[in-house]
Each structure stands twice: as C-alpha cells, then as structure tokens.
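Researcher: Sequence of C-type cytochrome follows. Predict its structure.
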Amino acid sequence: MRTIRLLAAAGAAFLASPMQAQDATPNGELTYRVVCAACHTLNPPYEKAPPMTHIARHYRQAFATEAEGVEAIVQWVTKPEVARSKMPAHAIERFGLMPAFPLPEAQLRDVAKYVWSLGAPAPATAAPAAGAATHQHNPPR
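Model: Prediction complete. Tokens:
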C-alpha cells in the first residue's frame, strides 16, 4: 500500500511539472502511463488490478453518456468505495479497493476521458464489394 501511495505522489509531482513541447502523448494517456499503469495493464494478463479495457467496458455499460461515465470515473479515483464501483463483485474481492489518488482536477478528467475511450467499440471494417477481386501479392522465392 505504501508503494502505491509513493507511486501516486511521484506521478502527481511529475504531472504537475510543465510538459515538454515535443511530447505528443495526450494528457490522459500520459497520466495513465505514469500513475495508473503501475497496477492497471491495458489488457490481460493482470496481477495487481483489473485491466483498463475491462474497466472502461464496465463504465460504458453502466453510463449512457461520456459525461456521466467520466464524472463517475473521477469520483471513483478520488474516493473509491464498494458502492460506487462498476466492476463485478469478484473483481473487488480479488483485488480490493484501490487507494484514492490526489491528482489535480484537470488531470483526473483527462485520465477519465482516456479510460472511457478504451471501451469504445472497434470501428467496423468494410468488406470487399460483392464480386470485387482481391489482390494478393506473393513475392517471388
């Protein structure tokens, strides 16, 4: 638990410093990488906490709009409580509750928007039109 709090404090200090101009990473993703990724992987396998893509999916199922989902994520990160969780009970039983993170409001919202975006459905891919020829390139041996 102490390690998690130290990581949170270090992440908050890092995020409070000015960003480098050449850094093109969106703020929410950067906050995730610096603060959240120590416990939350994006996808399975996972050991310390549920993966962010699963969390995002549960929040998208629980809330109709991004604004509602983002607000709920912000509230959760600032004050995790069992009653507020959108994760299944078995996730809370397995991992317990995370500690609250003392991040500035703007960074909380940025990371919440990033988490919300992780649950977006994959874009549909267009199938070739009926009768359309597909080109396969077979390099010479």
